[in-house]
């Protein structure tokens, strides 16, 4: 279960909960929690999504919970670690999300948050006599104020056009769509802030006002906030999120502070809040580092260099602590070392390809299982490849090579490769999907179970090679024997062993990340049974091309932070011999890079 954080917030007195969009106020009382409860979330004002009806019973003097019904198709939800402490209810679920809420005096309503540690939604438990819900009852809506509805429409228009542009292959059509998106974005930038201010003025004590405040702050310079207005909005957010518990309040408030300090003219308004957040009792080192980073940004903008330098030192120490703690607990289990092939003549190398994303919460289990396989298997038995995608949000580790590989498999397996995480074993899609950290061990066992029989196979195909690095130049020489045919191709992938980048799913390190191809995504035809191929990769050109790609993509969708890992250290080259007709990978080899990067960037 997640770490509970004491977060000092001023609590605004807004009265009792009288409607779905009113703000909650919890109170202390000895609860009686037996009975049926409806779990709902409110991802945005005016919407309530039902997740489950949960039955609570008393067994041996302790509350026990089970899921009676979930209206969400395909969702296999179960509850564990249900606990009541005072007026606080907490529980975990099988999808890796947790609930934390506070009961009202009548023990008829618990208001708090439900979701992952990185992205909890406002949520509540409400007593109910029902044992199941119809599809129509799964989502309830209230009337949205006209200005809020218009703002939603204006915001959606450029995003829809950009998404169309991303998927458009024709250059002219893509250019036309981007021009329309630019015009729609300009209209939204001009009109949305005024509409949000109307919502704030007319709906003061509702979720519509809170959401409008959050959006205005995160709108950055487009919102044209004054220092006074920014301060008022931060206070409103800090106060009104508190009714949903410390976890939700903390994350919403720090996000608002970060948005304000990003504007140099407003940085002084948020510096105090950032400092206060960094000292929250019980806050994790990761959260403290985030708050201190926001404070340093503010101090730099205010010209307080000495103070900023001192804060930078605190951040550096925390980063070391965070990395150490992370590496000690991830993976959260001990991988079982591969005992070796039973058939000593078996020589086929297994290949696991993972499509993932640093902004993808469900990718956590798959990524961590992937990392565990690195610990349990040698590259002479198992080659691991990680392709990052802009799913569900922009990811700076995505590149043209990963997108080309996605397109290659999507064309053949459109029903299997639909999102992240997706996995292929020797070119065959299997074991798709992921989950939260709690699912990582079961995912690892699933992967290992698929890999084990593959390692008992024998093939006549052999791959060997050598890669030498001199400065920013990689010289690659590969030999393939025992394979030929018009559908057989050799692909060379440049892989970075370890990259530190913290995205939305909070994984801190990413391994075996594909950064580029040598000779293009299509590779080269294996022309005869004894085939030799050489290629050269200029890493300076790779960096330049990656920068250009990310710059162009940022014009369509903004990246969540400016970090762009482009060190290109700890490189390896993976050679794949693949049948392009069946997509089966016949043989593979991971080739370590010899030489040094001396004289390079």
TrEMBL record:
It comes from the Bacteria. Keywords: Signal. Gene3D superfamilies: Immunoglobulins (2.60.40.10). This is DUF1223 domain-containing protein. The lineage of its organism: Bacteria, Pseudomonadati, Planctomycetota, Planctomycetia, Gemmatales. It comes from Gemmata algarum. Residues 1-19 form the signal peptide.
């Amino acid at each position: 279960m997640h770490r509970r954080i004491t977060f000092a917030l001023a609590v605004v007195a807004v009265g009792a909960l009288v409607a779905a969009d009113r703000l909650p106020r919890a109170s202390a009382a000895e609860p009686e929690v037996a009975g049926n409860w409806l779990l709902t979330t409110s991802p945005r004002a005016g919407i309530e999504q039902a997740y489950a009806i949960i039955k609570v019973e008393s067994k041996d003097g302790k509350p026990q919970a089970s899921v009676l019904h979930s209206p969400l198709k395909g969702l296999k939800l179960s509850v564990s670690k249900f606990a009541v402490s005072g007026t606080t209810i907490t529980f975990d679920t099988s999808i890796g999300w947790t609930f934390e809420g506070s009961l009202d005096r009548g023990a008829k309503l618990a208001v708090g948050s439900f979701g992952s540690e990185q992205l909890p939604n406002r949520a509540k438990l409400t007593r109910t006599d029902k044992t199941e819900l119809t599809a129509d009852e799964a989502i309830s809506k209230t009337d949205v104020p006209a200005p809020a509805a218009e703002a939603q429409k204006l915001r959606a228009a450029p995003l829809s056009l950009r998404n169309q542009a991303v998927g458009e292959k024709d250059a002219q059509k893509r250019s036309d769509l981007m021009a329309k998106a630019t015009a729609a974005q300009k209209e939204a930038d001009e009109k949305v802030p005024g509409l949000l201010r109307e919502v704030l003025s007319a709906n003061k004590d509702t979720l519509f006002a809170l959401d409008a405040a959050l959006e205005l702050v995160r709108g950055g310079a487009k919102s044209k906030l004054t220092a006074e207005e920014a301060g008022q909005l931060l206070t409103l957010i800090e106060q009104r999120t508190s009714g949903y518990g410390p976890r939700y309040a903390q994350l919403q408030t720090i996000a608002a502070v970060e948005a304000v300090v990003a504007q140099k003219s407003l940085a002084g308004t948020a510096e105090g809040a950032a400092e206060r957040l960094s000292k929250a009792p019980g806050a994790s080192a990761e959260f403290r580092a985030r708050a201190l980073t926001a404070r340093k940004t503010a101090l730099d903008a205010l010209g307080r260099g000495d103070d900023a330098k001192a804060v930078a030192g605190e951040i550096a120490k925390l980063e070391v602590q965070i990395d150490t703690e992370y590496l000690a607990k991830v993976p959260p289990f001990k991988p079982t070392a591969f005992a070796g092939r039973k058939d000593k003549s078996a020589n086929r190398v297994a290949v696991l390809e993972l499509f993932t994303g640093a902004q993808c919460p469900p990718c956590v289990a798959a990524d961590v299982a992937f990392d565990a396989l690195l610990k349990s298997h040698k590259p002479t038995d198992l080659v691991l490849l990680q392709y990052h995608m802009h799913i569900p949000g922009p990811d700076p580790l995505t590149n043209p090579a990963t997108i080309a590989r996605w397109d290659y498999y999507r064309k053949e397996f459109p029903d299997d490769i639909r999102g992240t995480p997706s996995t292929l074993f020797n070119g065959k899609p299997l074991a798709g999907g992921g989950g939260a950290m709690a699912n990582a061990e079961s995912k690892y066992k699933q992967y290992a179970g698929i890999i084990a029989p593959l390692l008992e196979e024998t093939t006549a195909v052999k791959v060997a090679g050598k890669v030498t690095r001199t400065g920013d130049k990689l010289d690659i020489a590969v030999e393939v024997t025992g394979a030929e045919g018009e559908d057989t191709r050799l692909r060379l992938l440049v892989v970075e062993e370890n990259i530190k980048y913290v995205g939305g799913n909070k994984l801190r390190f990413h391994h075996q990340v594909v950064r580029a191809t040598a000779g293009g995504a299509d590779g080269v035809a294996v022309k005869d049974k004894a085939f030799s191929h050489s290629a050269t990769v200029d890493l300076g050109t790779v960096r330049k091309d990656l920068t250009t790609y990310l710059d162009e993509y940022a014009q369509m969708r903004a990246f969540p932070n400016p970090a762009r890992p482009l060190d290109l250290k700890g490189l390896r080259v993976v050679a794949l011999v693949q049948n392009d007709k069946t997509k089966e990978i016949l043989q593979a080899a991971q080739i370590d890079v010899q030489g040094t990067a001396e004289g390079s960037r």
